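Subject line: Sequence and fold of a protein, written as structure tokens
Enclosed: The protein record, placed directly beneath this head.
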Amino acid sequence: MAKASDPAAVRERVREFALGLPGTVEEFPWGESVIKVNKKVFVFLGVGDGSHPLGVTLKLKDPEAHAHALTSPGAKPAGYGLGASGWVQVPLEGHGAPPAELLCDWAEESYRVIAPKKLIAELDGIAAQRQRTRKGP
């Protein structure tokens, strides 16, 4: 698992997690990596070439998750008016950046806000199957 002290590894872990959700694809509009479901962005990963600080932007409608994300050092409502709709920009660099596991939880929350109900049901079915497998017969 990626450590919070390695922003590139954290970014990659979030990317891999998001791409593992049902029906997702990665695209590169504006030269930035975005993860989409049903042709709609649910995670902005920005550029990973070192030209900008690493960060992720997610849509968090749950009030607790949204408030928690904004307590991360340097986090702020996303620009271009997206912040008014619950989008939060979270830096991955610097002391106190959220760990990959938490960012993956937020990526799933963002996915659930954007994805169609059919894909959310598929995700819930996968999660239920994993729990049954862990418990055993």
In short: The chain has a mean pLDDT of 90. The chain is about 40% helix and 20% strand. The first strand starts at residue 24 and ends at 27. Strands lie at 24-27, 33-37, 40-46, 55-59, 76-77, 87-91.
